[in-house]
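The data are quoted verbatim here:
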Amino acid sequence: MTTGTTTVAAYAAPAAKAPLERTTIERRAVGEFDVLIDIKFAGICHSDIHQAREGWGEAIFPMVPGHEIAGVVSEVGPGVTKFAVGDHVGVGCFVDSCRKCDNCKAGQEQYCTGGGVSTYNGLDKNGRPTYGGYSEKIVVDENYVLRIPDGLSLDVAAPLLCAGITLYSPLKRWNAGPGKKVAILGLGGLGHMGVKIAHALGAEVTVLSQSLRKKDDGLKLGADHYYATSDPKTFEELAGTFDLIVSTVSAPLDFNAYLSLLKTEGALVNVGAPEEPISLNLFSVIGGGKTLAGSMIGSIAQTQEMLDFCAGHGFGAEIELISASEINDAYERVLSSDVRYRFVIDTATI
């Protein structure tokens, strides 16, 4: 068992809105139930940018973002039973929870009310800041580590730990499948996984995007239909069409317009998180018994289910592999929607 902390290289934002730069951080010693992971790949999620730039409120700096982590186990604590050295594993958006609140007891740790610990920009149970996946190694309690199936290569698996589960969870909860008409709003890092998963679940899938420039991609990913939301005719043609719309957009929308696209008792579920409040006419939900809902990632068990599902259907994320020196450029490209469809950092370049 490791006796002391480990110094590892990482890329961190030293302050809000500051460019990320190479630095070193300390990882805790491997405890009884801990797993030491050599990180191989780390996805860049839009939420990394929101947090590094304090778009969602005050944050902890220096910040090492990254909660789409894929790697290989290099050491385990003496009490670990779930993993062994050499296993391919992943880590998602949280690395601990209180394990005592009603949500944790119900297997919904992502909604922990007693002290969930984010993978980065959080504080662990000893009050130390957490650092994420833009780094060489990470130490995580075995109960918050996922097994990456043999059928998934680590680079395309990394984004599944956030983007994959973020779409899988609401699609399962609202019963996307044969006979259901599902729309994915936005075809980016989250949206492209929504198309793949909804198609694999057997739903009839429509992409709603600002323009038609990604239409060919959308159809290749599994969409049956593709519409531009910038065209007013789209809202006339599709009125009352969908059982479920999942919005991946992190900018303010005209929610009244999108709610009009739902069938009676349909649901519009938000997984994108705009920084600004929204405006809503409640008659948009009252008339038709519609649901406006939110969803946040998924439990550890459901994340494992999602990884197994994706491996079973033979797909991961569509990625653009970059070196660590390209992180700041990648952030700007994400903001301008210039990525097909998820940047993944090769952490060997840190």
